[in-house]
Each structure stands twice: as structure tokens, then as C-alpha cells.
Amino acid sequence: MRISVIGCGYLGAVHAACMAELGHDVVGLDVDEDKIAKLAAGVAPFHEPGFDAVLKRGVESGRLGFTTDPAAIADAEIHFIAVGTPQLSGRLGADMSYVAQAVRTIIEHAEPGTERPVLVAGKSTVPVGTAQLISDEFDGSGKNLVLAWNPEFLREGYAVKDTLHPDRIVYGLPDDVAKGEAAREVLNQCYATMLEAETPLVVANYPTAELVKVAANSFLATKISFINAMADLCDATGGDVTRLAEAIGYDDRIGPKFLQAGIGFGGGCLPKDIRAFMARAGELGVDEALTFLREVDTINLRRRDHAVRLAEEVVGGSLSGKKIAVLGITFKPDTDDLRDSPALDIASKLWAAGADLAIVDPAAGDKLRERRPDLRVPETLEEAVTDADAVMILTQWRDFVDLDPTSIRDLVAAPNIIDGRNVLDPKRWSDAGWNYYGMGRGVSIW
Ligand SMILES: NC(=O)C1=CN([C@@H]2O[C@H](COP(=O)(O)OP(=O)(O)OC[C@H]3O[C@@H](n4cnc5c(N)ncnc54)[C@H](O)[C@@H]3O)[C@@H](O)[C@H]2O)C=CC1
Ligand SMILES: O=C(O)[C@H]1O[C@H](OP(=O)(O)OP(=O)(O)OC[C@H]2O[C@@H](n3ccc(=O)[nH]c3=O)[C@H](O)[C@@H]2O)[C@H](O)[C@@H](O)[C@@H]1O
Questions:
Q1: Helices (DSSP H) in 192-290: which residue ranges?
Q2: Reported pTM
Q3: What is the CATH number of the domain that holds 264?
Q4: Per the domain annotation, does 76 fall within a domain?
Q5: What is the atom index within ligand 1 of the atom nearest the CA of 83?
Q6: ipTM
Q7: Number of neighbours of residue 375 by Cβ within 10 angstroms
Q8: What is the b/e burial string over 176-200, where b = at least 16 CB atoms within 10 angstroms of the residue's CB?
């Protein structure tokens, strides 16, 4: 099929390349010229495991192209909307201006459907009610465009795998049966490989599909804040939240995933999605239904202050002039994404409190140097930890999780390790002469 993907960021670029991998002819459109130049040359503009190979294969096959020219989307049978919906500055709601612009681009440049309607599939995460508004706009455009809402659930770090082998596919279809069936048929053709592999398919109306997406992210955020609240209780009592999570996770109804306590969630989605969801609930007059999300957000942000306070205590009260080595600055491992990164937020707070910071990250070093020239980003971990009063692991990159505590013991000024992600073995680090500080991990002989 001929496909266009509008917006080639972390979601859209991967979606475009994976659609080409499935055999479709794909053009990716973006307004960012640098990004498009790289993508068109088969070079990934961001760090995402496995993406380089799929991108290169697609571009070399001739089935995958990237452009800033909106006219290039004209003959696509499906247009995917994958532009950003970031948090509005100073407000909880989502900035919908990029989606509005993408819709205008489609109306202006898409060839009208003749034999069957041309499908537009929304993938961006949007406030519930958006799909109906866009659908109404298409109806007034005279272009025979039909909208489906097809939310995306990929995780950064696993984006290629999640796109090609999703846990489920969701179609949000219009209430008009003929249009809905037409949309379903086109989507079935697009996702034939996945449907043949018996990927669960949930078909629903627009609001359900839109809500599924924000409900899923809200649930994940709630799970993380829940375990972080338990970490506070563990800190207050000497309990170990990692054991607690393991024990409750054996219950199938709870499950072991997303129970890793630490410095909390960040990224370009979970934080802004729960806030936009609360804002939308307010507009709908049902804000009380989501007041718990306010607490989820508050608990999450408190983790960052908690980490700063812990660092303060560890170095003896004042951070001023204290040398802190920060290992990991991205919002999670296996990405270079710094959007709402808890690690970067904590580092900024430490810096503001006068700490002498040295930050290393396997993927985001250059990006950080560019964005924050005020922060020191040495080339090597050894340089960063030399003479440190405390070492903090803020993103659990494999290199840091596997770090041999003896290998850096003699480089630091004081052997203090703060494990912001609860990924180290406290005994191993203590045995190597370190003072280990986790997040809700009391000292236990068991
Ligand atoms: N990053 C992720 O893992 C996932 C993101 N999402 C959702 O997908 C959407 C996109 O997210 P990301 O890819 O992370 O954002 P991003 O910021 O990485 O990418 C958005 C892209 O859209 C481009 N853009 C903006 N206006 C445009 C226009 N008028 N025409 C063409 N391109 C335009 C930007 O230049 C940028 O490259 C958001 O709504 C997000 O919530 C959903 C699931 C996963
Ligand atoms: O809508 C989106 O964009 C995506 O948001 C999340 O994916 P992602 O942001 O890539 O990252 P996650 O793996 O969900 O992690 C989010 C944050 O939670 C933190 N986290 C995760 C799990 C955990 O147990 N504890 C914890 O603190 C991570 O460190 C990270 O900062 C969802 O997992 C995806 O399903 C969704 O598609």
C-alpha cells in the first residue's frame, strides 16, 4: 500500500520504517529539515535500538522515502498522523497546534478518494473528542477522507519490536457504518502481517480508542507512583521495596512489571499524558474522576526532590562545591530522549544547589553538551567519578548496572553510591567498600 506518515519523530520515523519493512511504499513528511535529511540518507536522527537497520533497509529498498515537501503525500492510500502533542507551556493541557497543522496539510495535499475513501489514521496521543472534530473537518473538505483513530503503544528502547509485534491493535472507527467498514478494510490491509500473526484487535468507536491510549498510560503511571509510595513506607520502616515488589508481583492480578521504585517516571509521554487527561476531564466536567492522577503526578515529582535530599544527606548537609558524578541522564535507558527526564531534572537541581557535577550518558552526551553547555559532560565514566563525593545512578543503562564496584572504588573521594533506580546489588557494593543508598531499600540481612 502507499502510505504517508506525517511527523517523523520517535514515533513517526519508526512507524514509517516499520511499514516499509512490512512491504508498503512509505513517505515520511516532517517540517524539520535536518531530521529529514538524515532519515532520507538512511541515518537515524535519534538513538533507538534496531531502528538504524530497519531504516537503512527501507531506504535502500526504495520503498521508504522522507521529505519536507507536503505535495509528496498526495497519492497515499493511508495518511498516518504522528506529530507531537506536547504539554502546553504553563498549563496541563496538550498543545494541539501540530495536529491541526497536519490535518490542514492532509486536506490540502491528499488526492481525494475516488473508488474508496482515502484513510487518515491518527496515531498521536490526543484529548478524547479530537477524532470527532477532525472527522467533521474531513467531511467538510469534499475530499472523501475517512478518519480512524489508531493509537500507538510503543515504548522507546523497544520501538521497532513494539511496532512490528504489538501487544494489541486498536481501531477507533466512525459511527457511520459504511465509512467505518471502509476504514477497517484499509487498516486490515495495512496491518495484514500482524493480524495473520493473531495480534489481538480491539475495534471500538472514536472516544473509546482515544481513551484506551490515555487510560493505558495513566495505569502505568499509577503503578509506578504506587510502588514509589511504598518505597517511602519502606524508607520510614526499614523495609526493602524491591522485595516488596517481587512479592506482590507474584500475584497474577498485580504482575511484576512496572513496579520498579526509584526516581520516578519521565519522558515525552507519561507525565504530559496524565496531565492532559486531567485537563480534558476538567473540560468535560468530570475532573473528580481523575483527581487520583494529581496524586500520581505529585508522588512522582516528589521522587526527584527525594533524590536531591538524599544526595545532600550523603555528602554531609550541603551540596555546595561537592563533586557528584551522575551516571545516566536520559529518562530511561536505550534512548537519547531527554524530554522530562527525572535524571536531568535531578541533575539541574543538584547544580542549582551548587554541586560540582560531572555527567555521563552512553547516548545523550553530545545532545546534553549542546543543550546544557553549563553542565560538565566528560567523555568517560572514569573521568566523571574521579574525586567524586557521591556517585548517582539515575538511568539504568546496562553499562552502569554491570559496573564493577571495585573498578572505580579507588578513583572516588568518598565511596558513596546512590542507586536512583534500585538496580545494583547492595551487598556487592557494600562488600567492595561502598556506602550504598537505594530508594526505599532498608538494610536487611535477608
Ligand atoms: N515517543 C513515543 O514513544 C510515543 C509517542 N506517542 C505519541 O505520538 C506523538 C508523537 O510523539 P513523538 O514522536 O515522541 O514526538 P516527536 O516530537 O519526537 O516528533 C514529532 C514530529 O512531528 C514533527 N511535526 C510537527 N508539526 C508537523 C507538521 N505540521 N508536519 C509534519 N511534521 C510535523 C516534528 O518536527 C517532529 O519531528 C505524540 O502525540 C506522542 O504522545 C505515542 C506512543 C509512543
Ligand atoms: O505513550 C507513549 O509514548 C508511551 O509511553 C510509555 O513508554 P515510554 O515513555 O517509552 O517509557 P516507559 O518504559 O513506559 O517508561 C516511562 C518512565 O517510567 C519509568 N519507570 C518505568 C517502569 C518502572 O517500573 N518504574 C519506572 O520508574 C521509566 O524509567 C521512564 O522514566 C508507555 O510504556 C508506552 O506504552 C507508550 O506508548
A1: 192-196, 206-237, 241-249, 270-283
A2: 0.97
A3: 3.40.50.720
A4: yes
A5: 22
A6: 0.99
A7: 17
A8: eeebbebbbebbeebbeebeeeeee
